[in-house]
Description:
Elements: E1 2-3, H1 7-13, E2 26-28, H2 32-42, E3 46-48, H3 51-58, E4 62-65, H4 73-81, E5 86-89, H5 97-110, E6 113-116, H6 124-127, H7 130-138, E7 142-149, H8 157-167, E8 175-181, E9 183-184, E10 197-204, E11 208-214, E12 232-237, E13 240-245, E14 250-254, E15 261-263, H9 267-286, H10 296-315, E16 319-320, H11 327-340, E17 342-343
Helix pairs in contact: 4-5, 5-10, 8-10, 10-11
Amino acid sequence: MILGCGARANDHAVVYPDLRSMRLVAVCDLIEERREHFRVTYGVPEAFSDYETALAQTQPDIVHVCTSPGARVWEAECAAQAGVKAAIFEKPVAVRPSEIAALERIHAESGMEIIVNCQRRYYPQFRDGVIAEIIREKLGEAYFIRASTKGNTMGMGPHMMSLLLLFLGEAQPEAVWAMAHTINETSYQITHQAPESILAEYWFPGGIRVLFDCDPEALGTPGEASFWMHLHFDVLGTEGRLFLTQNKGYWYQSKGMVEAIYGESSWDVQGKQGQFDFTQAVADWLDGGPPHLNRLELEGPVVHALLAAQKSVYEGHRITLPTTFTDAQWLELRERLKAIHHIKADA
């Protein structure tokens, strides 16, 4: 079942006809015209206006939650109480500290799997460990990574941090120091609530330092017009370098290599297949297959790392991790940044 029939839900529904052992049984949306259009377009048997009624009548194994960020906890609680086996949430899975804590509690108490739709992990160069292997085995000792994206911390930031942790074997940062400015309350930033611009330095095990830049002016994918497509990694090692962009491929060159080796990395080419593989992997996991690459145990740390950077901004110095960041502190930081530079939504 899909909850929320907005634009993002289409990317979920379009892969269903070819999935194994899965079928879309219902959609749910408050707006009648939108849910009926979705039902007809994708041949869905039932459409509902009430989420709890939809859960009770269809008893789905899997729920795709495609609502706006900040609407996650109640949706997860309802699904868990209805016996749903796995709930898939669009990123960010949480924007406030209390939300990620509540989702982790629901998962622990109910056993319902929570999966975050950072589907880039299922692009072959990431899923099959190609990039991680290059960093681990081809560059000598990796010591510096620059990660940058155009979009705020909760826009493209979750995708970038998710891939970063995957590249580093799910290692967790040990410390962070960050600076930030501006609260933007226009467009998607109304729901993806975070500082408009944040520059963080993370310290990872093994002496790896990461410069993590989420900013409208960040150096993302060169020549890409859509800010959603701006995602860039530069990895430096003692014996080589890796260069990766979201829509311009990747290359690496090691000591002694005459020419660089190139590979594909493309949202335009790999996006739909990545979404298919991501969704299929949910059913395969529930049927006894490999654990999902975007399960909460792996994606929860993504949110904690992003919020830790905001905690560093709040305190004004480097902090060690793990740390505790409260909703009260999150709100105070937001008000502080508003007072400095606030972009208001159009009337």
